[in-house]
Amino acid sequence: MSRKIAIIGGGNLGSAIAFGLIDQSFIQAESLFVTRRQIAKLGTLGERGVNVLSDNLFAAQQAEWIIIAVKPHLATKVLEEIKSAITPDKTVISVVTGVSLEQMRKAIGEGPALFRAMPNTAIAIRESMTCIAAADAPESTQKEVVELFNQVGQAIIINEELMNSATVLGACGIAYALRFIRAASQGGIEIGFPAEVAQLIASQTVKGAASLLIENKKHPEFEIDKVTTPQGCTIAGLNEMEHQGFSSALIKGIMTSYLKIDKIPTE
């Protein structure tokens, strides 16, 4: 990519995006600017040739694309801080939870194409599921932003009204999946495996199950039917889990997170 990109906020998420973009050769390191108040914590990026600095405004002035990756309560303040650098020909992408496109537009004014993107923590190993919403962005720019986030996993465009839902299902969902793996590992210990072996088996099994759905594009029940035989141990275990409220508990947990998300402070 020939454009210059600024990532305002080089914390865990911002740094993961930066590493993903340069590791995939999506952008040259010298064309990437990453900011953080404590520049020393960006040392590894600096060693890779990335421009690391603490001046948000200067970084925004250098770039055509600006990615906002700060904490929710700092988002409006940072957008106002760099407002003078955001000309109509630029593109602004926020990966901040709970900050709407309308709030972004209010902070920086009319002109630039705006995007909200919600990756998850698997972005650190370039396996994120990223949902993106756009405002005042041509289709060509939308495709480019999707391609940017495809460097760190898979990305899709959704309607903004579904962004909270995407946060819960895709971002909080990492924690839900990990909790399942933890429980499965504990069950594995109960039936005789050492802890490390139980976790390995549970983790790889979940990875394989997800890959089956992604590769084959089938409904989960299609794959479940392949391993449930009449009077077998799989269907017995599944039925007991359902009797104990497995699916219901997961759905209720998702709904609880969804109802909570609007209460996250963004100012």
From TrEMBL:
Q: What is its EC number?
A: 1.5.1.2
Name a single GO cellular component: cytoplasm
One Pfam family this sequence matches: P5CR_dimer
Predominant cellular place of this UniProt entry's protein: cytoplasm
Q: Describe the location of the Pyrroline-5-carboxylate reductase dimerisation domain by residue ranges.
A: 160-260
**Is Nucleotide-binding one of the keywords?**
no
Q: Which positions are annotated as binding NADPH?
A: 56
Question: SUPFAM superfamilies in the record, alphabetically?
Answer: 6-phosphogluconate dehydrogenase C-terminal domain-like, NAD(P)-binding Rossmann-fold domains
Give the Pyrroline-5-carboxylate reductase catalytic N-terminal domain ranges.
4-97
Catalysed reaction per UniProt?
A: L-proline + NADP(+) = (S)-1-pyrroline-5-carboxylate + NADPH + 2 H(+); L-proline + NAD(+) = (S)-1-pyrroline-5-carboxylate + NADH + 2 H(+)
InterPro entries given in the database record: 6-PGluconate_DH-like_C_sf (IPR008927), NAD(P)-bd_dom_sf (IPR036291), P5C_Rdtase_cat_N (IPR028939), P5CR_dimer (IPR029036), Pyrroline-COOH_reductase (IPR000304)
- Record keywords, A-Z: Amino-acid biosynthesis, Cytoplasm, NADP, Oxidoreductase, Proline biosynthesis
Q: Which HAMAP family match?
A: P5C_reductase
As for family, the record states: Belongs to the pyrroline-5-carboxylate reductase family.
What is the protein name stated in its UniProt record? Pyrroline-5-carboxylate reductase
Annotated organism of origin: Persicobacter diffluens
